[in-house]
Design brief:
single chain, two-stranded antiparallel sheet, 5 strands, 46% strand
């Protein structure tokens, strides 16, 4: 299956969705989501439940936003 990707309307670049489990300072574990220009370890096949993709109007970078 192909990695989830988004093409920037501003720059035309393609970004791939990744996830990573991190440990915060208080010891709590959390999953973070980010977009990168290349497919690396942690690439996701689909959007996580409850999220939608928006694009930063100034930079053209894609971001995840929780659905209301």
């Amino acid at each position: 299956m192909a990695a989830y990707s988004v093409k920037s309307k501003k720059s035309g670049d393609t970004y791939y969705l990744h996830s990573k489990d991190v440990t915060l300072r208080g010891g709590r574990k959390q999953t973070i989501y980010y977009f990168g220009k290349t497919e690396k370890e942690g690439t996701l096949d689909d959007l996580p439940d409850g999220y939608t993709v928006i694009e930063n109007s100034r930079t053209g970078l894609p971001m995840l936003k929780k659905k209301k």
